[in-house]
Amino acid sequence: MEKNNLIKSVLAAFFSAITIGALTYLTYKTTFGLFLIASFGSSMVLLYGYPESPFAQPKNIFFGHLLTATVGVIVLNFVPLPIFITIPIAVGLGVGLMILFNVTHPPAGGNPIIVIIGSVSLDYLINPIITGSIIVLAFGIVINKFILKKKYPK
């Protein structure tokens, strides 16, 4: 095992735990609402493991999550088909639109599934999607740029 790879993995694990810990604390120990979604866990892989990746850039993280969650809410509310049809439609549309608008963030591809299975309301776009993404990005910028001294965002 290469020493640099070991250090990179330990730092990614540590800072992922801190970021998700903050979102978990806000979700479960305050009355501010929901800040945590499963796809933010996947975002940590890119944000701290591969911050140089185009998929880890702030524009992609924020708009990728927002776009796919919005697609999920729209499909949930306006496509009156069974769930086994709406989920694939929403995921396909979300993925296609992320690529079309150049805001691809692979973890966000799961958002329509979360939205439709959870039957969330429009408020879900504010909390956890917008506020959660902003918190994730704030941690990512501070940790990558100022603590790890990486060129982030690119």
Give the tags.
70% helix, mainly alpha, 154 residues
Write a compact overview of the structure shown.
The chain is an all-alpha fold and 154 residues long.
Write up what this structure looks like:
The protein contains six helices and no strands. The protein is mainly α and 154 residues long. The protein has one domain. It is globular. α1 (3-29) runs antiparallel to α6, α3 (58-78) packs antiparallel against α4 (83-100) and α3 runs antiparallel to α6 (126-147).
Helix count, DSSP H or I runs of 4 or more residues? 6
- Low-confidence spans: pLDDT under 50, at least 5 residues? none
Class per helix and strand makeup: mainly alpha
Radius of gyration: 16 Å
Separation of the first and last Cα atoms: 28 Å
**Tertiary shape:** globular
How many strands in all? 0
Please outline the major beta sheet: none
Mean of pLDDT = 97
> Could you estimate the helical fraction of the residues in percent?
over 70%
Order of H and E elements: HHHHHH
- Strand % is under 5%
The structural domain count equals 1
User: Assembly state here?
Assistant: single chain
